[in-house]
Design goal:
By secondary structure, this protein is an alpha/beta fold. The protein has a domain at about 1-205: Alpha-Beta Complex (Amidase signature (AS) enzymes), CATH 3.90.1300.10. It is built from 14 helices and eleven strands. Strands 4-6-5-10-11-9-7-8 form an eight-stranded mixed β-sheet, with helices on both faces. Strands 1-3-2 form a three-stranded mixed β-sheet, with helices on both faces. Helix 8 (about 280-295) packs across helix 11. The structure holds glutamine. Glutamine binds near residues 127, 149 and 286. Glutamine binds near residues 147 and 151. Its EC number is 6.3.5.7. One of its GO terms (molecular function) is transferase activity.
Length: about 450
């Protein structure tokens, strides 16, 4: 009830939620109480949670921030939300996001922008900005997000939260509306590494409904939290501290790294030479995958359909012209172009080759260090609207997060102080399936 009240009193300003499921939350909370009374409770039983509105939730509108799904009520539950429900969590509602998770600011939502609780003049980051704003403002203790190129880590950084993007394949994508299927991964947004570990315990695991999910045992992610950091080898990529990084963020991150040294870690400079190529590679591959994933929104089976279509082609074209927003259309155009017969080799294949080289850079680095540290973002949160008409300026903000998805690695952002009164994040990148180690480092740091 306290969280519902908080949503009521603050969401007029923040617009973190697209849908609040108050009645359902009360029913789930009552069931959690019963479960607790009968001694069946786990650590998450009865804990409220907000879900990014990209996870299908049975019987509840699942809009993905788009007009084309404004009337869509999912007929089934995503694996992630299902598992958290099984753990006894109470869903408060569905949070705002950039349309189809395409963006870094939560401004491209059909439902209007979300505002940053630290300063409502600035963006909360994106695309999981609604989830981050909800947790940062006390509307929810924890939330889910998804990260295709930074959408968990970047809003966590800009809202002073802890966000974890797991290794590709660690968390099932089933029922999570697809953006870039080879990059998408769901994960927790929380205040602390400990909360994130508790959520990941329930979210992770093999799912036969997702052919890319990995059949690797899920450890207890809370088990290593208290391990000392003695002997931990941290690498600082020199490319993450060069031109383009706000100098105050650089100072905050350096101070954070010094803290880790005091805790027993050793630090050395490393190189990820292909970092700057992650933006062109990602902004070909993600739109290419998006252009095919979004072909299912045709007005035939579900979602928005234009009025009075004259024939099938008119229905397809007008449904999509009216239903998708500008950024989504831009991605579909870019992706379709990059995949077209005459340009496939020049763009899509080339981007896939870069992707492999970016992955190799990380493998070379992990031969020398255990964890890579650096900034999550090059700048603090910007004013609403400041980059809305300049997509490339927005894409450049993703420079430190994209390569982690291209390589399929786990990445985390932890709060690392403020610049001009706005929070910034320290990013920690681990080797495949090293989530427990990242959570350990983050917990010791916090
Ligand atoms: N900003 C990136 C994009 O627009 C990443 C978004 C995401 O991780 N979903 O594609």
């Amino acid at each position: 009830e306290a969280y519902l009240k908080r949503i009521d009193s603050t969401d007029g300003d923040l617009n973190a939620f697209i849908t609040v499921t108050a009645d359902q939350a009360r029913t789930q909370a009552a069931a959690a109480d019963e479960r607790r009374a009968s001694g069946q409770a786990g650590p998450l039983t009865g804990v409220p949670i907000a879900h990014k509105d990209i996870f299908c939730t049975q019987g509840v509108r699942t809009s993905c921030g788009s007009k084309i799904l404004d009337n869509f009520t999912a007929p089934y539950e995503s694996t992630v939300t299902h598992k958290l429900q099984d753990a006894g969590m109470v869903m408060l509602g569905k949070t705002n996001l950039d349309e189809f998770a395409m963006g870094s600011s939560t401004e491209s939502s059909f439902y209007g922008p979300t505002r940053n609780p630290w300063n409502t003049e600035v963006i909360p980051g994106g695309s999981s900005g609604g989830s981050a704003a909800a947790v940062a403002s006390g509307q929810a203790p924890v939330a889910t997000g998804t990260d295709t190129g930074g959408s968990i880590r970047q809003p966590a950084a800009l809202c002073n939260l802890t966000g974890l993007k797991p290794t590709y394949g660690r968390v099932s994508r089933w029922g999570m509306i697809a953006y870039g299927s080879s990059l998408d991964q769901g994960g927790p947004i929380a205040r602390t590494a400990e909360d994130a570990a508790l959520l990941l315990n329930s979210m992770a695991g093999f799912d036969h409904k997702d052919s890319t999910s990995k059949d690797i045992a899920v450890p207890d992610y809370t088990a290593d939290l208290d391990k000392p950091l003695d002997g931990l080898r941290i690498g600082l990529p020199k490319e993450y501290f060069g031109e383009g990084l706000n100098s105050d963020i650089a100072a905050r991150v350096q101070a954070g790294v010094q803290e880790l040294e005091k805790l027993g870690a050793t630090v050395k400079e490393i190189s990820l030479p292909r970092t700057r190529l992650s933006i062109p590679a990602y902004y070909i591959i993600a739109p290419a995958e998006a252009s095919t994933n979004l072909s299912r929104f045709d007005g035939v089976r579900f979602g928005y359909r234009c009025e009075n279509p004259t024939d099938l082609l008119d229905m397809y074209t007008r449904t999509r012209a009216e239903g998708f927003g500008e950024e989504v259309k831009r991605r579909i155009m870019v992706g379709t172009y990059a995949l077209s017969a005459g340009y496939y080799d020049a763009y899509y294949n080339k981007a896939q080759q870069l992707r492999r080289l970016i992955k190799d850079d990380f493998q070379n680095a992990f031969a020398e260090v255990d964890v890579i540290a650096g900034p999550t973002t090059p700048s603090p949160a910007w004013k609403l609207g400041a980059k809305s008409n300049d997509p490339v300026a927005m894409y450049l903000e993703d420079i430190y997060t994209l390569s982690v998805n291209l390589a399929g690695l786990p990445g985390m952002s932890v709060p690392c102080g403020q610049v001009d009164g706005l929070p910034v994040g320290l990013q920690l990148i681990g080797n495949y399936f090293a989530e427990a180690q990242l959570l350990n480092v983050a917990h010791q740091y916090q």
